[in-house]
Write a structure and sequence with these properties.
Blueprint (H helix, E strand, L loop, with lengths): L1 H11 L5 H4 L1 H7 L6 H22 L2 H4 L2 H17 L8 H15 L3 H11 L4 H25 L5 H22 L16 H4 L4 H34 L7 H26 L1 H25 L2 H17 L1 H10 L6 H26 L14 H11 L6
Helix pairs in contact: 1-8, 1-9, 1-10, 4-7, 4-17, 6-7, 6-8, 6-10, 8-9, 8-17, 9-13, 9-16, 12-13, 12-16, 12-17, 12-18, 13-14, 13-15, 14-15, 14-16, 14-18, 16-17
């Protein structure tokens, strides 16, 4: 089942950064300004937050078939993504469409993890490593399509990502029935929304995840900005920004798989804490590599950062799932995703604001705050593994 879930997750999450991958075309065709990148990225995040909030509040994935929830969400998200290519859009309409796409991604990403957790009790960290790796590659895919797409219009990327979402939904509903470890929540219980945080280990795992999320999506969203700024600062350098953005984001998928395997030997907490520490150091060191690093050193640094910035994600999800009650696992994963992605909107908008008043080379320093706070929580819970 795991390969099917992974492929479906990869296909469907290609919707996430579909707007980012074609942002230059959207700006040109619809007369948007440069701040549209932050607004469109935040719209997806805010849509996802709203969706996960409602999915968690109504405990949908614990009361109904996760496979059917995934399928319906994939179809609807694909439709709203497709609508970007229709008519004469403006910033308001694009923000609305990205919001609605993000809303139904709430029925894809955390639900995919719920489906995997219903199939795999032992080795969950390794399984979620593959699953989050698929999310990373799906997120990076629009940048790859933009980088290699020299014969097609930007609309082609929209058509393809929407089609992949529909295909991913069909894979799940036709090939992945509810798992053997699924325990159905028998009735609606809104109190699950906050009761899950009463368990100390669950709470610590969640706060570690929140610190990680402060950095992750802001880094992903502003990788193209950083690359473009580097070419302006070092005028003898010329990058293919789209292709490099794909590799810098996409290489994190490999890191997720590696961290999943390492967690079986060193525990999820230890591997997550190590990755979070290294990514924090990358935030702090980023101005030095921007200013003094050669082209090769700078790209190598970003590729390394692209690995460690996401390597802890499947392990935090594993810790969350393992420290939640079985019949509440889907809701627990969803609410933690909800709050984590809420945090990303603040960090993305903060960078969006700061880029107007701070030189880009110093922009990512503020992202170190999240990992620092996450590590403080992790080291206050010695029994969490």
């Amino acid at each position: 089942m795991l390969p099917t879930i992974v492929i479906a997750q990869f296909f469907c999450t290609s919707l996430w950064f579909a707007g980012n991958g074609i942002i230059s075309d959207l700006i040109k065709n619809f007369n948007l300004n440069a701040s549209a990148l932050g607004h469109l990225t935040s719209a997806v995040q805010f849509g996802f937050i709203t969706g996960t909030l409602l999915f968690a509040l109504f405990t949908l994935t614990d009361r109904f078939s996760p496979s059917k929830v995934f399928f319906i969400s994939a179809i609807i998200a694909g439709v709203f993504n497709l609508l970007m290519s229709f008519g004469n859009q403006n910033l308001g309409s694009l923000v609305a469409l990205r919001f609605l796409t993000g809303f139904f991604l709430a029925g894809i990403y955390p639900v995919g993890m719920k489906i995997a957790s219903d199939y795999y009790k032992s080795g969950l960290g390794k399984s979620l490593g593959f699953l989050v790796g698929a999310l990373v590659l799906g997120t990076a895919l629009p940048h790859l399509l933009k980088g290699i797409n020299h014969g097609y219009s930007w609309e082609f990327i929209v058509y393809l990502t929407s089609a992949l979402s529909v295909l991913g939904g069909l894979f799940i509903v036709l090939l992945v029935p509810d798992g053997p470890y699924k325990k159905k929540l028998k009735k609606f219980d809104a109190s699950v929304f906050y009761k899950v945080f009463k368990t100390r280990n669950f709470r610590v795992a969640a706060f570690g995840y929140f610190g990680h999320m402060w950095e992750l999506y802001a880094f992903w969203a502003f990788v193209p900005v950083l690359l473009l700024a580097y070419t302006k600062f070092h005028q003898n350098v010329n990058f293919d920004v789209s292709l490099l953005s794909f590799f810098i984001i996409g290489i994190g998928g490999v890191a997720c798989v590696i961290s999943g395997f390492l967690s079986e030997q060193f525990t999820s907490k230890k591997v997550a804490a190590f990755a979070l520490t290294i990514s924090c150091l990358c935030c702090l060191a980023s101005p030095l590599f921007f200013i003094y690093g050669s082209q090769t050193i700078f790209i190598t640094f970003l590729l390394f950062w692209g690995m460690v910035v996401i390597a802890d994600s499947p392990l935090f999800s594993t810790l969350v799932a393992q420290n939640a009650e079985e019949q509440q696992k889907g809701t627990a994963l969803t609410i933690v995703n909800c709050l984590g992605f809420a945090i990303t909107t603040f960090s993305i908008q903060l960078l969006n604001f700061l880029q107007e008043i701070v030189e880009v080379k110093y922009l990512f320093l503020v992202l170190a705050l999240g990992p620092i706070l996450g590590l403080i929580y992790l080291y206050r819970a010695p029994k969490l593994n």
